[in-house]
Amino acid sequence: MLFGCCTNLIDLYKRTGVADKIFWDSRMTMIEPGGRRSVLAPSSLPAPMHGLPAILKARCYSLKDKLALIFAFTACMLGGKPDPSRSLLNWLETHLQTSGTLERFWRLVIASALNADLDQIGLPYAAKVIRELFLNSPQAGSMGMSTVPLSDLYRGAQEYIEARRGAIEFNQNVESAAWDSEANRWSIQTQEGEFVSEQMILALPFEATAKLLPNLPANAEAGQLAASLKSLEHWPICSVHLWFDREITELDHAVLLDRDIHWMYHKSRWQPLRDSKASYIELVVSASREFAALSRDQAIARATSQLAEFFPEVREAKLVKSALIKEMRATFGVPPKVDSARSSAISPWPNCFLAGDWTATGWPSTMESAARSGYLAAEALCRSLGDSRKILVPDLAPTGLMKLLG
Predict the structure, then answer these.
(1) In this structure, are residues 187 and 177 in contact, taking their beta carbons and an 8 Å threshold?
(2) Are residues 297 and 354 in the same domain?
(3) What pLDDT score does 34 carry?
(4) When comparing pLDDT for 406 and 265, which is higher?
(5) Could you tell me if 223 and 255 lie in one domain?
């Protein structure tokens, strides 16, 4: 899943020829147990008011909830630069939020988007999500979903690289890298042999980078990087995949309230290769270590039971197949002061650059952050060669009245 504000990820898809494989929808259907629905969608009003009519009509929020959300959004717009040492929960406690908004908006939408508990989210990242998804423009909040399996979506990246005389070496486990100052190049040792290169970009998850550090040239800056990486923490995401023998809902996707399962993606409706007469459902559970600790059978049983509370047809349908995917290292957390642990693209070594969603991109742990990190590393490499080209795509420009509010 991506959003319209993910300018660099969208650019990557355009570069690799798969932008037309993304299905876009600006509507977000929120469903309560029992089936009552509320739809959040942009209106014709200028930003930031484009989402206001839908919030006012939403039956899942009380009048007090709606006023609390409007107050919080206004404070987010007018409150100045967010304090990086403050957590989202601390900010919410001082901004008159109700139990309804905490459970049905902040914990469901924002905490799951950032994949962490409210007290473990730095205020600047929460504010960025609010501004990008709900305030800056209607386009920024549009949701995109792949109409093909992810293996097909990213196959274009390999073709893009190979068309430019590059190559991907699969199953090459990098064991160490050494800098030859006389030859001015890197020697990279893998299980299968040695590679040499004048430039090197380490595009690894933070834990893989930390594991490789002892086998890279030692210096003071490398020690500082190792210390910073130790402060980063993983958060899990679980996805339950259910195949039913019939269609259980006409919705393409939905946000499910008050239960463990948060996001429902009806993949058989927008992936042409699927059986359109049946239902292939993916249920995503974010920021829940308790759910991640369940066994396969427990997780699937709980998710299926909860799904039936929203879509009664589940009780009559036959569950043909099911799967549970636990990504225990799905994202890194963005707690207060996390930016002090996020490295720039410049590494502690010559002709070596860092990439990965954990680096200093200004974005939380997302595919957009990963794409930005690659573009920033490419820019840094180009600068080292005397080429000042810009590769990073700017943020989506605010529209309407948000142009006046920055």
Answers:
(1) yes
(2) no
(3) 97
(4) 265
(5) no
90 and 216 together in one domain: no
What's the domain range around 100?
27-141
Confidence of residue 367 (pLDDT cuts 50, 70, 90): very high
CB 99 within 8 A of CB 348: no
Based on the fold, state whether residues 76 and 130 are members of the same structural domain: yes
Q: Examine residue 146 and state whether it is found in any structural domain, yes or no.
A: no
Query: In the chain, what is the straight-line distance between the N-terminal and C-terminal CA atoms, in Å?
Result: 26
Same domain, 310 and 378: no
By C-alpha distance, which of 119, 127, 108 is closest to 28? 108
pLDDT on residue 106:
96
Q: Are residues 81 and 229 in the same domain?
A: no
Q: What is the pLDDT of residue 239?
A: 97
43-72 per-position pLDDT tens digit: 999 999 999 999 999 999 999 999 999 999
Question: Domain count of the chain?
Answer: 3
Phi, psi for 44 (deg, rounded to 5)? -85, 0
- 338-347 burial, b for 16+ CB within 10 Å, e for fewer? beebbbebbb
pLDDT confidence band for 20 (50 / 70 / 90)? very high
Per-residue pLDDT for 79 more than 90?
Answer: no
The DSSP element (H or E) to which 285 belongs, if any, is strand 279-286
Asked if residue 187 belongs to a domain, the reply is no
Is the model's pLDDT at 406 over the cut of 70? Answer: no
Confidence of residue 363 (pLDDT cuts 50, 70, 90): very high
- Contact residues for 396 (Cβ-Cβ < 8 A; gap 6+): 4, 5, 7, 132, 136, 137, 139, 140
Task: Provide CB contacts within 8 A for 165, sequence distance 6+.
Answer: none
Domain assignment present for residue 167? The answer is no
What is the average pLDDT value for the chain, to the nearest integer? 95
Within this chain, do residues 102 and 214 fall inside the same structural domain, yes or no? no
Residues 6+ positions from 63 with CB-CB distance below 8 Å: none
With b meaning 16 or more CB within 10 Å and e meaning fewer, what string describes 94-131?
A: eeebbebbbebbbbbbbbbbbbbbbebbbbbbbbbbbb
DSSP character for 97?
A: -
Do both 360 and 260 map to the same domain?
Answer: no
Instruction: Tell me the C-alpha distance between 371 and 376, whole Å.
Output: 9
